[in-house]
Every structure is written in C-alpha cells, then in structure tokens.
Amino acid sequence: MSYLNVFICSLLEVLECTIISIDFFIIPLFAAVWIMLPAYIPNPAAALFGGGTPLDFGRNYSDGHRIFGDGKTFRGLFFGVMAGIVTGLLLIWLSATFALTFLPQHTLISVSLLALGALLGDLGKSFLKRRLGKVRGEKWPVADQLDLVAGAFILMLLFDPSWLFAYVTIPILIIIVILTIILHRVVNIIGYFMGVKEVPW
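Structure (tokenized):
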C-alpha cells in the first residue's frame, strides 16, 4: 500500500471518529441544553427579581418551622416562570427561523411546564428542608442540584408525557443530570459574588 493510500485511510478514520463523536456526544449535549434552558432560567431569575411577600405569608407549619421560608416569594415565582417561558419562546423562534430540526421541538406547553415545574421542584425541596429542620441556605447535596430537574420532568410526565418520552432519552437524561450539577454550582458561585445568593452553593 502506497503512502498516499495510508494517508487517505488514516484521514478517513479520523473523519469517521469525528462524525461518530458529533453524533454520540455533541448533538445529545446540545439537545440536553436546548431541552433544559426553559427550566434552567427560572431559578436564577427568581433569585434576581424576587423579594416581597413570601409564598407562605411568613407562617409556620405544624412542626413549628416555616412552610417555605422568606426566599420563596410571589414575585420570584412569577418572574421566574415568565423568564423561563420567554426563553422557551425564543428557542421556538430560533428553531423555526433557522430550521433547527435536529434539536428537540419545543411547544408553548412544553416550555411552560418546564419553567413552572423547575420552580415547583425548588418549592418542594424547600418544604422538605424545613421539615428536616434545615435552615435557609443550608446544603442538601443532590436535592439542591436536581430539584428543578425532578420538578420539571414530573410536571411534564403528568401533563405532556408524549413530548417528554419523544425527546428525553436515557443518554440525554444522563447528560442533563451531569450538566445540571455542574451548572448549579457555577451559577450559584456567580450569584453569590453578585450579591443575589447568600451562599455559593
């Protein structure tokens, strides 16, 4: 075999590996981010634009602890959900404008459920933290990172399961879990230095 043939074969192997890596990693990564953006935005938006009247009106549960805490407010819930929906509508526009058919196709229902579900998941976690006697800002590993994923997907499962099962495959779910854990840490550190978060976790 000539040197030219060896070079061409080697080049083809490299190109084949590149194509495989794009198909099996890059595209699922983009798909995971695309799916979760309407759920990722609400929490930082709620922290940024929140404040005012708490959702629990400052009341305690039967165990003597707050129901949710001062960090969960009506204004934060409203602006958080709106920010997630607006993000989702932008994704829908981008997909239609640039024919991004290789990415999951959001709908108004899907982005609304993801945005609302993310904050409901956070509320559910806060409720359980209060029941366990954990104070606001206290670490709760795993739950702190994945509450928004659980809330968003549970709401999708209840009200739009066909969309959920059409786009959230096992590989994409694994990527979403890993990505969420990393982004949660990064966003909280940024929020802490901006003065939006009380703790960097």
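The radius of gyration is 21 Å. The helical segments are 3-40, 42-49, 74-98, 108-131, 143-159, 161-167, 170-194.
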